[in-house]
Amino acid sequence: MSNRKRSSNKKTSSIWRNILAAILLLIAIALIFNTSIRNMIIAWNSNRYQVSKITEADIEKNKQAATTFDFDQVESISTEAVLKAQWEAQELPVIGGIAIPDLNINLPIFKGVSNVSLMYGAGTMKEGQEMGQGNYALASHNIIGMAGSSETLFAPLLRAKEGMKIYVTDKQHVYTYIVTEVKSVTPESIEVIDDIEGQTEITLVTCEDAAATMRTIVKGKLETSVPYKEAPKSMLKHFEKKYNQLQL
């Protein structure tokens, strides 16, 4: 074999080694920053859909949107699912916002419980439910990583305590609920979101573990309702807080 041919083979082999090394490096970087990328996308979309950026007219229109209320079709959240949802660039039906100041929560409320809506905010669990009436039930994800729960979406509900305030708004009114109960139930305990005659409450639902074997339920009793335009700035500011929970 000529020296020129040997040199060419060595050069080709070196190029392929470099390409392989670059691919492995990219894979390693993707694995290292996997969670950060996912959480950044969630935060960006949650901020984009914040109720403070949505008009009352848009909310009224979004209330008519067709969506799903089948909680059984909801899948566990993953980076791949978040990226897929991002590329689909869906326009989600925002119908309000929920803020829990003591837990640093400020999320959009979407109509229904589609996979995509629960990745970026809270979804309504029953068709036709109304804020300030009956049992207003909302669900969202709790992202659980290697180090345990993060601060993403409804994960902070695991630290909820009796007496905390929950604010929800549809830009017509702001409703204030006071947390009355925090408990764990099995996924089959769907009665927790049923209306109870004579009671006006809110029920927040999220998973406790990666396998979704248990649910954390936070219940609150309606305390006050004020017109949105008459609500004090100290109350409305909670719906303007940027979603920045980007912990790994």
TrEMBL record:
Kindly give the InterPro entries that the UniProt entry links to this protein.
Answer: Sortase (IPR005754), Sortase_A (IPR042007), Sortase_dom-sf (IPR023365)
Give a GO biological-process term.
proteolysis
Gene Ontology MF term list:
cysteine-type peptidase activity
Q: Which Gene3D superfamilies does the record associate with it?
A: Sortase
List the active site: H141, C207
Identify the keywords attached in UniProt to this record, alphabetized.
Hydrolase, Protease, Thiol protease
* Pfam families for the chain: Sortase (PF04203)
Protein origin, superkingdom: Bacteria
Q: Does the keyword Phosphoprotein apply?
A: no
Q: What is this protein called?
A: Class A sortase
Per the UniProt record, the source organism is Streptococcus cuniculi
